[in-house]
Automatic annotation (TrEMBL):
It comes from Rhizobium lusitanum. One of its GO terms (molecular function) is transmembrane signaling receptor activity. PROSITE patterns: CHEMOTAXIS_TRANSDUC_2, HAMP, PAC. InterPro entries: Chemotax_Me-accpt_rcpt, HAMP_dom, MCP_chemotaxis, MCPsignal_dom, PAC, PAS, PAS-assoc_C, PAS-like_dom_sf. Its main location: membrane. Residues 301-530 form the Methyl-accepting transducer domain. Belongs to the methyl-accepting chemotaxis (MCP) protein family. Residues 249-296 form the HAMP domain. It comes from the Bacteria. This is PAS domain-containing protein.
Amino acid sequence: MLGLHGAAGTMKTGALDAMSANIMIADAKLNIIYINPATRELLQEAESDLKKELSRFDMSTLVGSNIDIFHRNPAHQRGMLAALKSQHKATITVGHRVFDLIVTPLKRGESILGFVVEWADARARIQNTDYRNQLLAINRVQAVIEFTPAGEIVSANDNFLTAVGYTLAEIKGRNHRMFLEEGETGDHLFEQLWTDLRANKPHIGDIVRFGKGGRPIYLNASYNPITNDSGKVVKVVKFATDVSERVFAVRTVGEALSKLALGDLSFSLDRPFAKDFEALRENMNAATQQLGQTLASVSLSTGLIDDGAREISDGAGNLSRRTEQQAAALEETAAALDEITVNVGNASKRANEARQAAEMANVSANHSGQIVADAVGAMARIEQSSDRIANIISVIDEIAFQTNLLALNAGVEAARAGEAGKGFAVVAQEVRELAQRSAKAAKEIKELIRNSSDEVRHGVKLVHETGDALKTIQANITTVNEHMQAIAVSANEQSTGLSEVNSAVNQMDQVTQQNAAMVEEATASSMTLAQEAEKLRQMVVRFKLPAQSSHLGAAMATSNGEASFASYGEPKKIVRLRAGSAG
Protein backbone atom coordinates (compact mmCIF):
# COMPACT_ATOMS: atom_id res chain seq x y z
CA MET A 1 0.00 0.00 0.00
CA LEU A 2 2.08 2.92 -1.41
CA GLY A 3 5.17 1.36 0.14
CA LEU A 4 3.53 0.93 3.59
CA HIS A 5 4.66 -2.67 4.23
CA GLY A 6 5.79 -4.59 7.24
CA ALA A 7 5.51 -3.56 10.87
CA ALA A 8 5.88 0.14 10.09
CA GLY A 9 3.11 -0.01 7.51
CA THR A 10 0.85 -1.86 9.89
CA MET A 11 1.48 0.75 12.59
CA LYS A 12 0.67 3.61 10.19
CA THR A 13 -2.53 1.89 8.99
CA GLY A 14 -3.59 1.31 12.58
CA ALA A 15 -3.00 4.98 13.33
CA LEU A 16 -5.19 5.97 10.37
CA ASP A 17 -7.93 3.59 11.54
CA ALA A 18 -7.91 5.24 14.97
CA MET A 19 -8.21 8.80 13.61
CA SER A 20 -11.53 10.64 13.89
CA ALA A 21 -10.77 12.45 10.62
CA ASN A 22 -12.33 10.96 7.50
CA ILE A 23 -9.35 9.65 5.44
CA MET A 24 -9.44 8.08 1.98
CA ILE A 25 -6.27 7.07 0.01
CA ALA A 26 -6.08 6.55 -3.76
CA ASP A 27 -3.09 5.42 -5.79
CA ALA A 28 -1.56 7.26 -8.75
CA LYS A 29 -4.17 5.74 -11.07
CA LEU A 30 -6.92 7.15 -8.82
CA ASN A 31 -8.00 3.73 -7.58
CA ILE A 32 -9.23 3.79 -3.97
CA ILE A 33 -6.92 1.57 -1.89
CA TYR A 34 -7.93 2.56 1.64
CA ILE A 35 -10.71 4.23 3.67
CA ASN A 36 -10.61 4.46 7.45
CA PRO A 37 -13.63 3.56 9.64
CA ALA A 38 -14.63 7.22 10.11
CA THR A 39 -14.89 7.72 6.32
CA ARG A 40 -16.74 4.43 5.91
CA GLU A 41 -19.27 5.50 8.55
CA LEU A 42 -19.75 8.93 6.89
CA LEU A 43 -20.29 7.51 3.39
CA GLN A 44 -22.36 4.58 4.67
CA GLU A 45 -24.81 7.03 6.26
CA ALA A 46 -25.03 9.01 2.99
CA GLU A 47 -25.05 5.97 0.67
CA SER A 48 -28.78 6.10 -0.25
CA ASP A 49 -28.52 9.80 -1.19
CA LEU A 50 -25.28 9.31 -3.10
CA LYS A 51 -26.72 6.46 -5.16
CA LYS A 52 -29.54 8.75 -6.39
CA GLU A 53 -26.95 11.00 -8.05
CA LEU A 54 -24.03 8.55 -8.60
CA SER A 55 -25.34 5.34 -10.10
CA ARG A 56 -22.00 3.51 -9.83
CA PHE A 57 -21.46 4.25 -6.14
CA ASP A 58 -21.54 1.15 -3.92
CA MET A 59 -20.02 0.93 -0.45
CA SER A 60 -19.46 -2.81 -0.70
CA THR A 61 -17.09 -2.35 -3.68
CA LEU A 62 -15.81 1.15 -2.86
CA VAL A 63 -12.26 0.00 -2.01
CA GLY A 64 -10.78 -0.98 -5.37
CA SER A 65 -13.10 1.37 -7.31
CA ASN A 66 -11.85 4.43 -9.14
CA ILE A 67 -12.63 7.91 -7.83
CA ASP A 68 -14.27 8.57 -11.20
CA ILE A 69 -17.47 7.19 -9.61
CA PHE A 70 -17.74 10.49 -7.66
CA HIS A 71 -17.65 12.74 -10.74
CA ARG A 72 -19.97 13.37 -13.66
CA ASN A 73 -16.97 14.70 -15.67
CA PRO A 74 -14.02 12.44 -14.72
CA ALA A 75 -11.69 13.94 -17.41
CA HIS A 76 -11.82 17.34 -15.73
CA GLN A 77 -10.98 15.89 -12.32
CA ARG A 78 -8.16 13.74 -13.71
CA GLY A 79 -6.56 16.76 -15.41
CA MET A 80 -6.78 18.79 -12.23
CA LEU A 81 -5.24 16.03 -10.06
CA ALA A 82 -2.46 15.33 -12.58
CA ALA A 83 -1.39 18.98 -12.34
CA LEU A 84 -1.77 19.14 -8.54
CA LYS A 85 1.43 20.29 -6.82
CA SER A 86 0.15 21.01 -3.30
CA GLN A 87 -2.86 20.58 -1.08
CA HIS A 88 -6.22 21.41 -2.75
CA LYS A 89 -9.51 22.24 -1.04
CA ALA A 90 -12.93 21.85 -2.72
CA THR A 91 -16.61 21.54 -1.87
CA ILE A 92 -18.83 19.10 -3.77
CA THR A 93 -22.60 18.83 -3.77
CA VAL A 94 -24.32 15.50 -4.39
CA GLY A 95 -28.08 15.82 -4.26
CA HIS A 96 -28.77 17.61 -0.97
CA ARG A 97 -25.47 16.42 0.53
CA VAL A 98 -22.53 18.83 0.71
CA PHE A 99 -18.95 17.67 1.47
CA ASP A 100 -15.73 19.60 2.07
CA LEU A 101 -12.70 17.81 0.56
CA ILE A 102 -8.96 18.36 1.23
CA VAL A 103 -6.84 16.56 -1.41
CA THR A 104 -3.12 16.13 -0.62
CA PRO A 105 -0.80 14.55 -3.24
CA LEU A 106 1.66 11.88 -1.96
CA LYS A 107 4.93 12.55 -3.82
CA ARG A 108 8.37 11.03 -4.05
CA GLY A 109 10.47 13.67 -5.63
CA GLU A 110 8.44 14.91 -8.56
CA SER A 111 6.50 11.66 -8.97
CA ILE A 112 2.95 11.38 -7.56
CA LEU A 113 2.51 8.09 -5.72
CA GLY A 114 -1.11 8.71 -4.78
CA PHE A 115 -3.57 11.05 -3.06
CA VAL A 116 -4.90 11.42 0.48
CA VAL A 117 -8.47 12.81 0.56
CA GLU A 118 -9.88 14.14 3.84
CA TRP A 119 -13.71 14.19 3.83
CA ALA A 120 -15.89 16.46 5.99
CA ASP A 121 -19.67 16.95 6.16
CA ALA A 122 -20.09 20.61 5.18
CA ARG A 123 -23.53 21.02 6.77
CA ALA A 124 -22.19 22.25 10.12
CA ARG A 125 -19.81 24.70 8.44
CA ILE A 126 -22.55 26.04 6.14
CA GLN A 127 -24.96 26.26 9.05
CA ASN A 128 -22.44 28.12 11.22
CA THR A 129 -21.77 30.49 8.34
CA ASP A 130 -25.49 31.05 7.99
CA TYR A 131 -25.85 31.70 11.73
CA ARG A 132 -22.91 34.12 11.66
CA ASN A 133 -24.40 36.02 8.73
CA GLN A 134 -27.79 36.14 10.47
CA LEU A 135 -26.18 37.63 13.58
CA LEU A 136 -24.35 40.18 11.46
CA ALA A 137 -27.65 41.12 9.82
CA ILE A 138 -29.34 41.44 13.23
CA ASN A 139 -26.41 43.50 14.52
CA ARG A 140 -26.83 45.93 11.61
CA VAL A 141 -30.51 46.68 12.27
CA GLN A 142 -31.05 46.00 15.99
CA ALA A 143 -29.59 47.22 19.24
CA VAL A 144 -27.51 44.40 20.78
CA ILE A 145 -25.97 44.22 24.24
CA GLU A 146 -24.28 41.32 26.09
CA PHE A 147 -24.30 40.66 29.85
CA THR A 148 -22.74 38.20 32.25
CA PRO A 149 -25.22 35.96 34.13
CA ALA A 150 -25.01 38.50 36.98
CA GLY A 151 -26.12 41.34 34.69
CA GLU A 152 -22.70 42.95 34.17
CA ILE A 153 -22.39 44.67 30.78
CA VAL A 154 -19.81 43.02 28.53
CA SER A 155 -20.34 44.76 25.18
CA ALA A 156 -22.89 46.72 23.15
CA ASN A 157 -23.17 47.61 19.49
CA ASP A 158 -23.48 51.10 18.01
CA ASN A 159 -27.27 50.85 17.62
CA PHE A 160 -27.67 50.24 21.34
CA LEU A 161 -25.22 52.98 22.32
CA THR A 162 -27.02 55.45 20.06
CA ALA A 163 -30.37 54.56 21.62
CA VAL A 164 -29.22 55.04 25.24
CA GLY A 165 -26.86 57.93 24.56
CA TYR A 166 -23.82 56.36 26.26
CA THR A 167 -20.41 55.32 24.95
CA LEU A 168 -19.21 51.77 25.43
CA ALA A 169 -16.58 52.98 27.91
CA GLU A 170 -19.32 54.57 30.04
CA ILE A 171 -21.34 51.36 30.43
CA LYS A 172 -18.87 48.44 30.09
CA GLY A 173 -18.41 46.68 33.42
CA ARG A 174 -21.48 48.36 34.95
CA ASN A 175 -24.68 46.51 35.85
CA HIS A 176 -27.92 46.32 33.88
CA ARG A 177 -29.63 47.97 36.86
CA MET A 178 -28.47 51.35 35.51
CA PHE A 179 -31.10 51.20 32.74
CA LEU A 180 -34.06 50.51 35.02
CA GLU A 181 -36.36 52.80 36.99
CA GLU A 182 -35.01 54.07 40.27
CA GLY A 183 -36.40 52.93 43.61
CA GLU A 184 -38.04 49.73 44.83
CA THR A 185 -39.94 49.19 41.59
CA GLY A 186 -36.72 49.05 39.59
CA ASP A 187 -35.05 46.81 42.22
CA HIS A 188 -37.91 44.34 42.10
CA LEU A 189 -37.95 44.32 38.30
CA PHE A 190 -34.20 43.72 38.14
CA GLU A 191 -34.28 40.87 40.64
CA GLN A 192 -37.19 39.10 38.94
CA LEU A 193 -35.77 39.54 35.42
CA TRP A 194 -32.29 38.24 36.18
CA THR A 195 -33.56 35.37 38.33
CA ASP A 196 -35.52 34.15 35.31
CA LEU A 197 -32.59 34.69 32.93
CA ARG A 198 -30.18 32.72 35.14
CA ALA A 199 -32.83 29.95 35.13
CA ASN A 200 -32.59 29.96 31.28
CA LYS A 201 -35.99 31.64 30.87
CA PRO A 202 -35.96 34.26 28.10
CA HIS A 203 -37.84 37.55 28.42
CA ILE A 204 -39.58 38.91 25.32
CA GLY A 205 -41.84 41.91 24.84
CA ASP A 206 -42.23 45.70 24.86
CA ILE A 207 -40.27 47.42 27.65
CA VAL A 208 -39.27 50.87 28.91
CA ARG A 209 -35.61 51.57 29.72
CA PHE A 210 -33.85 54.78 30.71
CA GLY A 211 -30.89 56.24 28.84
CA LYS A 212 -28.45 58.98 29.69
CA GLY A 213 -30.01 61.77 31.74
CA GLY A 214 -33.02 59.59 32.69
CA ARG A 215 -34.53 59.81 29.19
CA PRO A 216 -37.13 57.05 28.70
CA ILE A 217 -36.52 54.70 25.79
CA TYR A 218 -39.25 52.44 24.42
CA LEU A 219 -37.94 49.12 23.14
CA ASN A 220 -39.25 45.91 21.67
CA ALA A 221 -36.67 43.53 23.08
CA SER A 222 -35.72 39.95 23.82
CA TYR A 223 -33.33 38.81 26.58
CA ASN A 224 -31.81 35.50 25.45
CA PRO A 225 -29.85 33.30 27.90
CA ILE A 226 -26.89 31.56 26.17
CA THR A 227 -25.86 28.18 27.57
CA ASN A 228 -22.75 26.02 27.23
CA ASP A 229 -22.73 22.34 26.29
CA SER A 230 -23.72 21.37 29.83
CA GLY A 231 -26.76 23.67 29.78
CA LYS A 232 -25.36 26.29 32.14
CA VAL A 233 -26.14 29.93 31.34
CA VAL A 234 -22.82 31.64 30.51
CA LYS A 235 -24.11 34.97 29.21
CA VAL A 236 -27.23 36.90 28.20
CA VAL A 237 -27.68 38.60 24.83
CA LYS A 238 -30.35 41.26 24.41
CA PHE A 239 -31.72 42.15 20.96
CA ALA A 240 -33.87 45.29 20.85
CA THR A 241 -35.54 47.69 18.48
CA ASP A 242 -36.19 51.31 19.45
CA VAL A 243 -39.93 51.88 19.07
CA SER A 244 -40.12 55.32 20.71
CA GLU A 245 -41.45 56.91 17.53
CA ARG A 246 -44.12 54.26 17.32
CA VAL A 247 -45.09 54.91 20.95
CA PHE A 248 -45.26 58.66 20.31
CA ALA A 249 -47.44 58.08 17.24
CA VAL A 250 -49.75 55.66 19.05
CA ARG A 251 -50.12 57.89 22.10
CA THR A 252 -50.73 60.99 20.00
CA VAL A 253 -53.38 59.20 17.97
CA GLY A 254 -54.82 57.76 21.20
CA GLU A 255 -55.16 61.27 22.68
CA ALA A 256 -56.71 62.50 19.44
CA LEU A 257 -59.22 59.63 19.54
CA SER A 258 -60.06 60.51 23.15
CA LYS A 259 -60.86 64.08 22.07
CA LEU A 260 -62.84 62.72 19.17
CA ALA A 261 -64.79 60.48 21.55
CA LEU A 262 -65.72 63.61 23.54
CA GLY A 263 -66.96 65.30 20.36
CA ASP A 264 -64.02 67.65 19.87
CA LEU A 265 -63.20 67.97 16.17
CA SER A 266 -61.38 71.29 16.42
CA PHE A 267 -57.85 69.89 16.66
CA SER A 268 -55.18 68.72 14.21
CA LEU A 269 -51.93 66.77 14.66
CA ASP A 270 -49.14 69.15 13.64
CA ARG A 271 -45.94 67.48 14.86
CA PRO A 272 -44.69 65.08 12.16
CA PHE A 273 -44.43 61.39 13.02
CA ALA A 274 -41.66 59.04 11.98
CA LYS A 275 -41.69 58.13 8.30
CA ASP A 276 -43.46 54.81 8.85
CA PHE A 277 -46.27 56.53 10.81
CA GLU A 278 -46.57 59.87 8.98
CA ALA A 279 -49.39 58.48 6.81
CA LEU A 280 -51.31 57.70 10.02
CA ARG A 281 -51.08 61.35 11.14
CA GLU A 282 -52.16 62.65 7.74
CA ASN A 283 -55.07 60.20 7.59
CA MET A 284 -56.13 61.15 11.11
CA ASN A 285 -56.14 64.85 10.25
CA ALA A 286 -57.98 64.19 6.98
CA ALA A 287 -60.55 61.99 8.75
CA THR A 288 -61.15 64.62 11.45
CA GLN A 289 -61.55 67.36 8.87
CA GLN A 290 -63.86 65.24 6.73
CA LEU A 291 -65.93 64.23 9.76
CA GLY A 292 -66.29 67.88 10.78
CA GLN A 293 -67.48 68.85 7.32
CA THR A 294 -69.83 65.87 7.25
CA LEU A 295 -71.33 66.75 10.64
CA ALA A 296 -71.84 70.35 9.51
CA SER A 297 -73.70 69.08 6.46
CA VAL A 298 -75.65 66.66 8.66
CA SER A 299 -76.64 69.52 10.95
CA LEU A 300 -77.98 71.51 7.97
CA SER A 301 -79.77 68.49 6.53
CA THR A 302 -81.28 67.60 9.89
CA GLY A 303 -83.40 70.75 9.95
CA LEU A 304 -84.66 70.09 6.42
CA ILE A 305 -85.44 66.47 7.32
CA ASP A 306 -87.31 67.61 10.44
CA ASP A 307 -89.52 70.03 8.46
CA GLY A 308 -90.23 67.43 5.78
CA ALA A 309 -90.96 64.75 8.38
CA ARG A 310 -93.50 67.00 10.11
CA GLU A 311 -95.28 67.75 6.81
CA ILE A 312 -95.35 64.03 6.01
CA SER A 313 -96.69 63.34 9.48
CA ASP A 314 -99.56 65.84 9.09
CA GLY A 315 -100.51 64.52 5.64
CA ALA A 316 -100.30 60.94 6.87
CA GLY A 317 -102.55 61.81 9.81
CA ASN A 318 -105.28 63.22 7.52
CA LEU A 319 -104.95 60.21 5.20
CA SER A 320 -105.16 57.91 8.21
CA ARG A 321 -108.48 59.46 9.37
CA ARG A 322 -110.04 59.19 5.89
CA THR A 323 -108.79 55.65 5.50
CA GLU A 324 -110.26 54.69 8.87
CA GLN A 325 -113.68 56.08 7.83
CA GLN A 326 -113.54 54.15 4.55
CA ALA A 327 -112.49 51.03 6.42
CA ALA A 328 -115.43 51.39 8.83
CA ALA A 329 -117.93 51.76 5.95
CA LEU A 330 -116.50 48.76 4.14
CA GLU A 331 -116.57 46.77 7.35
CA GLU A 332 -120.34 47.49 7.79
CA THR A 333 -120.99 46.62 4.12
CA ALA A 334 -119.04 43.40 4.53
CA ALA A 335 -121.04 42.50 7.65
CA ALA A 336 -124.38 43.10 5.83
CA LEU A 337 -123.26 41.05 2.86
CA ASP A 338 -122.16 38.30 5.23
CA GLU A 339 -125.74 38.14 6.65
CA ILE A 340 -127.33 38.18 3.16
CA THR A 341 -124.93 35.51 1.99
CA VAL A 342 -125.80 33.34 4.99
CA ASN A 343 -129.58 33.74 4.38
CA VAL A 344 -129.29 33.00 0.66
CA GLY A 345 -127.09 30.05 1.48
CA ASN A 346 -129.72 28.73 3.92
CA ALA A 347 -132.49 29.21 1.30
CA SER A 348 -130.41 27.42 -1.28
CA LYS A 349 -129.77 24.67 1.22
CA ARG A 350 -133.53 24.32 1.95
CA ALA A 351 -134.37 24.32 -1.80
CA ASN A 352 -131.84 21.58 -2.36
CA GLU A 353 -133.31 19.62 0.54
CA ALA A 354 -136.89 20.08 -0.89
CA ARG A 355 -135.64 19.02 -4.34
CA GLN A 356 -134.05 15.95 -2.82
CA ALA A 357 -137.33 15.18 -0.92
CA ALA A 358 -139.35 15.56 -4.16
CA GLU A 359 -136.94 13.27 -5.95
CA MET A 360 -137.29 10.72 -3.14
CA ALA A 361 -141.16 11.04 -3.31
CA ASN A 362 -141.01 10.53 -7.06
CA VAL A 363 -138.86 7.45 -6.58
CA SER A 364 -141.29 6.19 -3.90
CA ALA A 365 -144.33 6.82 -6.18
CA ASN A 366 -142.64 4.94 -9.01
CA HIS A 367 -141.90 2.14 -6.62
CA SER A 368 -145.50 2.14 -5.28
CA GLY A 369 -146.86 2.06 -8.84
CA GLN A 370 -144.69 -0.90 -9.59
CA ILE A 371 -145.91 -2.62 -6.42
CA VAL A 372 -149.56 -1.95 -7.40
CA ALA A 373 -148.89 -3.32 -10.87
CA ASP A 374 -147.35 -6.36 -9.30
CA ALA A 375 -150.41 -6.67 -6.98
CA VAL A 376 -152.77 -6.45 -9.97
CA GLY A 377 -150.81 -9.21 -11.68
CA ALA A 378 -150.88 -11.28 -8.52
CA MET A 379 -154.65 -10.78 -8.20
CA ALA A 380 -155.10 -11.86 -11.81
CA ARG A 381 -153.06 -14.94 -11.19
CA ILE A 382 -155.08 -15.66 -7.99
CA GLU A 383 -158.28 -15.31 -10.01
CA GLN A 384 -156.96 -17.74 -12.62
CA SER A 385 -155.91 -20.13 -9.87
CA SER A 386 -159.42 -19.90 -8.31
CA ASP A 387 -161.01 -20.78 -11.62
CA ARG A 388 -158.70 -23.74 -12.05
CA ILE A 389 -159.45 -24.86 -8.47
CA ALA A 390 -163.21 -24.57 -9.20
CA ASN A 391 -162.74 -26.76 -12.26
CA ILE A 392 -160.78 -29.28 -10.23
CA ILE A 393 -163.55 -29.27 -7.54
CA SER A 394 -166.14 -29.86 -10.28
CA VAL A 395 -164.11 -32.87 -11.40
CA ILE A 396 -163.87 -34.06 -7.79
CA ASP A 397 -167.68 -33.60 -7.38
CA GLU A 398 -168.32 -35.55 -10.57
CA ILE A 399 -165.90 -38.28 -9.40
CA ALA A 400 -167.82 -38.44 -6.05
CA PHE A 401 -171.15 -38.70 -7.90
CA GLN A 402 -169.85 -41.52 -10.09
CA THR A 403 -168.36 -43.24 -7.06
CA ASN A 404 -171.67 -42.98 -5.24
CA LEU A 405 -173.48 -44.60 -8.23
CA LEU A 406 -170.89 -47.34 -8.37
CA ALA A 407 -171.28 -47.94 -4.62
CA LEU A 408 -175.09 -48.08 -5.04
CA ASN A 409 -174.79 -50.59 -7.85
CA ALA A 410 -172.32 -52.60 -5.80
CA GLY A 411 -174.85 -52.67 -2.91
CA VAL A 412 -177.59 -53.88 -5.22
CA GLU A 413 -175.34 -56.58 -6.53
CA ALA A 414 -174.30 -57.57 -3.01
CA ALA A 415 -177.97 -57.90 -1.96
CA ARG A 416 -178.57 -60.17 -4.88
CA ALA A 417 -175.68 -62.30 -3.83
CA GLY A 418 -177.32 -63.04 -0.53
CA GLU A 419 -175.20 -64.25 2.30
CA ALA A 420 -172.02 -64.31 0.20
CA GLY A 421 -172.27 -60.64 -0.66
CA LYS A 422 -172.69 -59.24 2.85
CA GLY A 423 -169.06 -58.31 3.28
CA PHE A 424 -168.89 -56.64 -0.09
CA ALA A 425 -172.13 -54.83 0.73
CA VAL A 426 -170.50 -53.35 3.86
CA VAL A 427 -167.53 -52.11 1.78
CA ALA A 428 -169.84 -50.70 -0.83
CA GLN A 429 -171.73 -48.84 1.90
CA GLU A 430 -168.52 -47.32 3.25
CA VAL A 431 -167.42 -46.23 -0.24
CA ARG A 432 -170.79 -44.62 -0.82
CA GLU A 433 -170.56 -42.71 2.47
CA LEU A 434 -167.05 -41.51 1.54
CA ALA A 435 -168.30 -40.46 -1.87
CA GLN A 436 -171.13 -38.50 -0.27
CA ARG A 437 -168.73 -36.81 2.17
CA SER A 438 -166.37 -35.91 -0.73
CA ALA A 439 -169.26 -34.47 -2.71
CA LYS A 440 -170.34 -32.43 0.31
CA ALA A 441 -166.77 -31.16 0.92
CA ALA A 442 -166.34 -30.34 -2.77
CA LYS A 443 -169.57 -28.37 -2.68
CA GLU A 444 -168.43 -26.41 0.36
CA ILE A 445 -164.98 -25.72 -1.23
CA LYS A 446 -166.65 -24.63 -4.44
CA GLU A 447 -168.81 -22.20 -2.49
CA LEU A 448 -165.77 -20.80 -0.71
CA ILE A 449 -163.84 -20.42 -4.00
CA ARG A 450 -166.82 -18.65 -5.53
CA ASN A 451 -166.85 -16.15 -2.62
CA SER A 452 -163.05 -15.76 -2.83
CA SER A 453 -163.20 -15.08 -6.55
CA ASP A 454 -165.76 -12.36 -5.92
CA GLU A 455 -163.46 -10.77 -3.30
CA VAL A 456 -160.44 -11.10 -5.62
CA ARG A 457 -162.29 -9.39 -8.44
CA HIS A 458 -163.26 -6.59 -6.03
CA GLY A 459 -159.61 -6.34 -4.84
CA VAL A 460 -158.34 -6.21 -8.42
CA LYS A 461 -160.72 -3.39 -9.12
CA LEU A 462 -159.49 -1.47 -6.06
CA VAL A 463 -155.83 -2.10 -6.98
CA HIS A 464 -156.50 -0.80 -10.50
CA GLU A 465 -158.03 2.32 -9.02
CA THR A 466 -155.03 2.71 -6.65
CA GLY A 467 -152.59 2.35 -9.59
CA ASP A 468 -154.43 5.06 -11.49
CA ALA A 469 -154.26 7.37 -8.43
CA LEU A 470 -150.53 6.69 -7.95
CA LYS A 471 -149.86 7.50 -11.61
CA THR A 472 -151.62 10.85 -11.15
CA ILE A 473 -149.57 11.47 -7.96
CA GLN A 474 -146.33 10.51 -9.78
CA ALA A 475 -147.09 12.96 -12.59
CA ASN A 476 -147.74 15.76 -10.02
CA ILE A 477 -144.55 14.90 -8.11
CA THR A 478 -142.51 15.00 -11.35
CA THR A 479 -143.88 18.48 -12.06
CA VAL A 480 -143.08 19.61 -8.50
CA ASN A 481 -139.59 18.10 -8.80
CA GLU A 482 -138.93 20.04 -12.01
CA HIS A 483 -140.01 23.28 -10.32
CA MET A 484 -137.86 22.54 -7.24
CA GLN A 485 -134.86 21.75 -9.50
CA ALA A 486 -135.20 25.13 -11.19
CA ILE A 487 -135.57 26.86 -7.79
CA ALA A 488 -132.46 25.04 -6.43
CA VAL A 489 -130.35 25.96 -9.48
CA SER A 490 -131.39 29.62 -9.19
CA ALA A 491 -130.68 29.61 -5.43
CA ASN A 492 -127.24 28.08 -5.98
CA GLU A 493 -126.39 30.64 -8.66
CA GLN A 494 -127.60 33.44 -6.40
CA SER A 495 -125.57 32.04 -3.46
CA THR A 496 -122.43 31.73 -5.63
CA GLY A 497 -122.81 35.29 -6.91
CA LEU A 498 -123.32 36.67 -3.42
CA SER A 499 -120.31 34.68 -2.17
CA GLU A 500 -118.14 36.20 -4.87
CA VAL A 501 -119.45 39.68 -4.07
CA ASN A 502 -118.90 39.01 -0.36
CA SER A 503 -115.37 37.74 -1.03
CA ALA A 504 -114.58 40.84 -3.08
CA VAL A 505 -115.97 43.13 -0.39
CA ASN A 506 -114.06 41.25 2.32
CA GLN A 507 -110.90 41.52 0.24
CA MET A 508 -111.51 45.23 -0.19
CA ASP A 509 -112.07 45.46 3.56
CA GLN A 510 -108.78 43.64 4.26
CA VAL A 511 -106.90 45.81 1.77
CA THR A 512 -108.42 48.91 3.32
CA GLN A 513 -107.49 47.65 6.79
CA GLN A 514 -103.95 47.01 5.58
CA ASN A 515 -103.85 50.43 3.99
CA ALA A 516 -105.04 51.92 7.24
CA ALA A 517 -102.36 50.00 9.14
CA MET A 518 -99.72 51.10 6.65
CA VAL A 519 -100.91 54.71 6.96
CA GLU A 520 -100.66 54.41 10.73
CA GLU A 521 -97.16 52.95 10.38
CA ALA A 522 -96.23 55.72 7.96
CA THR A 523 -97.58 58.28 10.42
CA ALA A 524 -95.65 56.67 13.27
CA SER A 525 -92.52 56.44 11.09
CA SER A 526 -92.77 60.09 10.10
CA MET A 527 -93.21 61.05 13.75
CA THR A 528 -90.26 58.84 14.67
CA LEU A 529 -88.26 60.37 11.82
CA ALA A 530 -88.99 63.83 13.17
CA GLN A 531 -87.98 62.74 16.68
CA GLU A 532 -84.79 61.10 15.39
CA ALA A 533 -83.99 64.19 13.35
CA GLU A 534 -84.30 66.23 16.52
CA LYS A 535 -82.07 63.77 18.38
CA LEU A 536 -79.56 63.91 15.53
CA ARG A 537 -79.57 67.69 15.68
CA GLN A 538 -78.98 67.54 19.44
CA MET A 539 -76.12 65.06 18.91
CA VAL A 540 -74.50 67.26 16.26
CA VAL A 541 -74.76 70.25 18.57
CA ARG A 542 -72.57 68.41 21.08
CA PHE A 543 -69.65 68.32 18.61
CA LYS A 544 -67.12 71.10 18.60
CA LEU A 545 -66.65 71.68 14.89
CA PRO A 546 -63.40 73.09 13.45
CA ALA A 547 -64.47 76.68 12.98
CA GLN A 548 -61.43 77.80 14.94
CA SER A 549 -58.91 74.96 14.99
CA SER A 550 -56.85 74.17 18.04
CA HIS A 551 -53.88 71.88 17.88
CA LEU A 552 -52.40 69.14 19.95
CA GLY A 553 -49.13 70.08 21.63
CA ALA A 554 -45.99 69.34 19.70
CA ALA A 555 -44.45 67.48 22.61
CA MET A 556 -46.14 64.89 24.86
CA ALA A 557 -45.52 64.38 28.52
CA THR A 558 -44.10 60.92 29.04
CA SER A 559 -44.58 58.99 32.27
CA ASN A 560 -41.88 56.65 33.59
CA GLY A 561 -41.99 52.88 34.16
CA GLU A 562 -43.03 49.70 32.37
CA ALA A 563 -46.73 50.24 32.87
CA SER A 564 -46.86 53.45 30.81
CA PHE A 565 -45.48 51.66 27.74
CA ALA A 566 -47.72 48.64 28.11
CA SER A 567 -50.83 50.86 28.29
CA TYR A 568 -50.99 51.47 24.53
CA GLY A 569 -51.15 47.82 23.54
CA GLU A 570 -50.18 44.25 24.30
CA PRO A 571 -46.44 43.45 23.92
CA LYS A 572 -45.68 41.83 20.58
CA LYS A 573 -44.08 38.40 20.57
CA ILE A 574 -40.88 37.87 18.53
CA VAL A 575 -39.24 34.66 17.39
CA ARG A 576 -36.87 33.27 19.98
CA LEU A 577 -33.34 32.82 18.58
CA ARG A 578 -31.65 29.49 19.06
CA ALA A 579 -28.90 29.47 21.67
CA GLY A 580 -26.19 28.76 19.11
CA SER A 581 -27.16 31.79 17.01
CA ALA A 582 -26.22 34.35 19.65
CA GLY A 583 -22.57 33.34 19.75
